[in-house]
Amino acid sequence: MPTAVALVLYLAVAFLWSWPLATQPGAAITELTSTNPHEDTIGHYDRLLTIAGTARNSAALINGEPGKLFGTGLCYPHPFAGTLGEHMIELGIVAMPFRIFTDNPIALHNATLLVSFLISGLAMFAAVFYWTGSGPAAVLSGLALAIHPERLMNLAHPAVVAVYWVPLVLLFFDRLVEKGRVRDALLLTLTSCLQAVTGSYPLLTFLLVALPYGTVRMVQQRRHLDLYKLGLLGIAVAATLAVTAAVSCLTSDKKRSGRSPNSALLFSLPTADCCSVARQRSE
Which pTM does this prediction carry? Predict the structure, then answer.
């Protein structure tokens, strides 16, 4: 029952907050306005970058072309332009199921936006319910993360504020060290890898939360840990580190070697022109 209440509540919040987005998901986007026109302009073009990156990355993953994951961003068509900013790989992964129904970049962006409310709320709900057994506490905790002001104010930068996988990482970590089940190890690996490829800022936040939390919980559970549990945990950690290192190394290598003699010209292009090119290529 609490899960159903949470699901309905988070869906309602997502649709009501973004209304009337649901009436034209393939033609409209949500944008917050401020008293500074310059900030509004930057936010608008950042949103276009996110739309282009989501569409391009989901297509690259579906078509089995991982080399194109870094081929989007502000400085496109500079080689591996995605390495000069947020790569948005996780956004591409989340958008993949929706490409079954449409390849409209705006619709894909809006789908990931609405899903982010659900993931945020349900992830925190699941973690708090596991820790406390309290339905009301879990529902309110999930709502607090789903509509956190920092998230709502930064919807143009989902790859910067998306930390919604962290509660699930902590949840499956706890379940693994307590019960030692393979499925918990697999889910821990999956959620950790998704959080690791979200973006650099969420990755830093993830590390700042997960490392001290994991250390404390390992100390608390030290008498109940055996080689089997430690082995499963080691595999999950190793897989996450491997994915993180692969993305980081690829990013670093392309940053060092990807620049062409004409890259200075690309960096001097107006922001609007660069974003326009990225949007056109995604469409």
Answer: 0.81
**Residue 45 has what pLDDT?**
76
Cα–Cα distances in angstroms (integers) from residue 178 to residues 191, 223, 228, 238, in the given order: 18, 11, 12, 20
Model confidence at 81, pLDDT cuts 50, 70, 90, reads low
Residue 259 falls in which region: left (phi positive, over 0), alpha (psi -120 to 50) or beta: beta
C-alpha 59/C-alpha 143 separation (Å) is 32
Residue 47 near residue 183 (C-beta atoms within 8 A):
no
Cα dihedral 22, 9, 161, 37 sign: positive
pLDDT in tens, 214-271: 999 999 988 888 999 999 999 999 999 998 887 766 655 444 444 433 333 333 333 3
Return d(Cα 183, Cα 172) in angstroms, integer: 9
For the cut 80, the answer to whether the pLDDT of residue 208 exceeds it is yes
Torsion sign over Cα 8, 10, 14, 16:
positive
**Mean pLDDT across the chain, nearest whole number?**
80
Structure tokens of 234?
């080691």
CA 68 centroid distance within chain? 18
